[in-house]
Amino acid sequence: MSRRLPIVDPHAAPVVATDTRLPAVPAERLAAAALRERFAAHAAQWQPELAGDGGLFAGREPAAASVLVPLVAHAQGVTVLLTRRTEHLRDHAGQISFPGGRAEEIDADAVHTALREAQEEVGLAPEFVDVIGALPVYTTVTGFHVTPVVALVRPGFTLAIDSFEVAEAFEVPLAFLMDPARHRHHEFEFGGERRRFLSMPWQGLDAAGRPREYFIWGATAAMLRNLYAFLVR
C-alpha cells in the first residue's frame, strides 16, 4: 500500500486543461424520464472513465461505502443535491460530497447504505427517493470502495441536516455538471509525485442568499464525470 499525502488546498493546484472540445449531454437526456430510461436500458456493468483516486493513505484498510446521487426532478429541470461537509471531520473535511458513508452490518446492500446515510445526514426521507441505478464502484484514496447509487428525488421534501457532519446542503443544475466545458483538470507535483484531479466549481448562493463558490472536486467530481460519460455515450 503506497503512502500518499492529502491535497490540502485544491484551489492552488494549477488548471492544465478544460474539456471544451467534448459535447455536453443533450438537454433531452437530462429529463427525469430520459434518465430513468437510460439506466433501465443500460444497467450492465461498463468501464468508468475514472475508477479511483490512486494509491491509498498508508495504514488504511479498504472498506465498503455508498453515496446517494440525488437527482431532484424539478419541473423546470433536474438538479443534483450535494452537501458541504463540516471542517472538523477526519475524512474530506469541508469538501463537497454526496450524502453517504460507510456500510454497516444492518445494511442489506449498497442501496440500503445510501438511503440510510442520506436520511441520517440530511434528513432525506426514503419515500421521496426512487433508485434508478448505480455507477461503477469508485475507490477513494482514503480506502473506501464507494458505490454511487443514482436516484430520482421527488420535490417537496424537507431536509433536516445533521450539523455534526454537514455544514449545508445545496442544489446544482444537472445540465451545468454534465457540460464538460465546466470540467477543469488540475495537475501538480509534490514530493516527486505528480497528482491530477478534476474540479467543477459552481457559483451559487448559500442558505443566507449570499454568493458563494462551491468547489466540487476529487471523488465527487470524478463520480459526476463518470455519470457524464454514461449519459453522453
Quick synopsis:
With 233 residues, the chain is of the alpha+beta class.
Number of domains: 1
The CATH architecture is Alpha-Beta Complex
Q: Unreliable segments (pLDDT under 50, ≥5 consecutive)?
A: none
Strand-pairing-aware structural class: alpha+beta
Distance between the termini: 34 Å
CATH homologous superfamily annotation = Nucleoside Triphosphate Pyrophosphohydrolase
Compute the CA-based radius of gyration.
17 Å
* Biggest sheet statistics: 8 strands, mixed
Total strands: 13
Strand content: 25-35%
Query: Based on CA inertia axes, which overall geometry fits?
Result: globular
Task: Compute the number of helices.
Answer: 4
Question: Residue-averaged pLDDT, rounded?
Answer: 90
Features:
233 residues, eight-stranded mixed sheet, 4 helices
What this model shows, in words?
The protein has 233 residues and is an alpha+beta fold. It has one domain: Nucleoside Triphosphate Pyrophosphohydrolase (Alpha-Beta Complex). 18% of the residues lie in helices and 33% in strands. It contains 4 helices and 13 strands. It has helices spanning 32-41, 110-122, 174-177, 218-232; strands at 15-18, 63-74, 77-85, 96-97, 100-102, 129-134, 138-139, 144-153, 166-173, 184-190, 193-199, 202-205, 211-214. The strands form 3 sheets. Strands 2, 3, 4, 5, 6, 7, 8 and 9 form an 8-stranded mixed β-sheet that branches. β2 (63-74) and β3 form a beta hairpin. The longest helix has 15 residues, at 218-232.
